[in-house]
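Before relying on records like the one below, remember that each one covers exactly one chain. Contacts with other chains, cofactors or solvent are not represented anywhere in the record.
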Amino acid sequence: MDFEDLVTALSPPPNRIGKSDGEHEHHLYEGAVMVAYAMHLLRTQDTRHVRVHPDGEHGKQFDFAAWLLRRDFVKISRVGTTSYGGTYRNPAGQEITVNPKSGLGDVVAEVGSKVISAECKGGIINTRHSGQVSRLYKGLCETVGMLMATPSQGRQVAVVPFTEGTLRLAERLAPRCALAGIEIALVGSRGEVTDVRPVSAAD
């Protein structure tokens, strides 16, 4: 994966000036994490259809329709009342349905008789601001907690932005998450996905 348009660069507010690597804060919004992981599933799993379920705030932050169109996904039907809700298909016949509805899992794909369900969070990936770093950590813990509270129909994956901090936390969480049947995946700034597994399982 090499997507150059997942990150939104914004000037920091006064209280965060000088707290990021570079002049701008690099926001990897939750919507961007969702589409990056959806594309990852289409590329790596035996499925041709992935469903994404953003909420209204995600749609304000991230332009789903424009991003998918740049990947040659053309809207073929509408879902719901938002401008971006609908099913998008690329020339290879792969489909992504964007359905702004909560409670269905952020990214869902059926692979054979199993379901892959992912909960996603976004964040600022180049920040050193303690509050924003903490939000990244809390995002990972929250996605894991939401999956633990949801009955599993197959694979469950917690998906958050890749930073040095989230990687360290994911490596600490991975063994216990594995016992609960929960996987952890980290999305990089260009859409690359890193699966974090317990050390014993990776050896």
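DSSP finds six helices and twelve strands in the chain.
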